[in-house]
């Protein structure tokens, strides 16, 4: 057992150990599991100095509280989280999208999410034993996570995660976090498109759906106009994948996520493309979404574009300045917009031409 450990003082709403997933076993009924948003995993790991696919803690909303035990530990948080660090009884706010070092006995608290519902915490040198090639926790089958009697369980109060002591090099940060895509969730029709009427597709693509309270790592149940079946409301069970949109007899769609079953008997009207699956999984209950259709070829192009965007983000990771302020990032961003000239007759954005036109006319000399 490692002398340096990370203690879970509170797991929050739901926290678990994940990585890229348990690939290659769906044919025998073992789901992928793994993080819901691989981009967050990769960013957090690069920030802390791990390999991109190293194990991480995935958590939802807020309430996660962690403490370093036995020595300094380096962590990094990816996601729009409101963080707090406690040192010597003093609490201070901390920005996400960066790494940090916790001294022995110091605490990191994820208070809440300011955007989305998923955050990922990477721990430098987290030591875990893979099961079927992955440490990902799949609680329904007791796979992954920690060894022994705690195997396959989500994180609980008192769990100790073995890691390595923090190195002496400095902290890192992501200067400009990923931009949130507010567009529709894109889908490829099928694989059981012929089980639905034309009206069902018009409804799926033309109406809004709301994420219900039944939303977890297995899937999202959506609420909205019912999707009309064109025949039998069930099929002979066949393969499913994360992103598949099943439609049970009540016509309310269910989008499958990482922990979903490997086969099912509800027809699937469409499948969410991989490039959009992470942001779909981050939607909170009550949030509204719309769908748009793309071809399989367009989905592949969007996947390549998303990967290029992620690699650009990772290439932008840089050392954190000693004072914690990245002036280059601040100066590269448009921090103020909508400025108006107080003397202008009509308020409008301030430009050099507008400034000159709005300036008062100097008095004539006497």
Automatic annotation (TrEMBL):
Keywords annotated in UniProt: ATP-binding, Hydrolase, Nucleotide-binding
Record keyword Isomerase present: no
Domain Carboxyltransferase, chain residue ranges per copy: 27-309
Name of the protein this chain belongs to: Conserved hypothetical urea amidolyase-related protein
Gene source species: Azoarcus sp. (strain BH72)
A GO term for molecular function: hydrolase activity
Database matches in Pfam families: CT_A_B (PF02626)
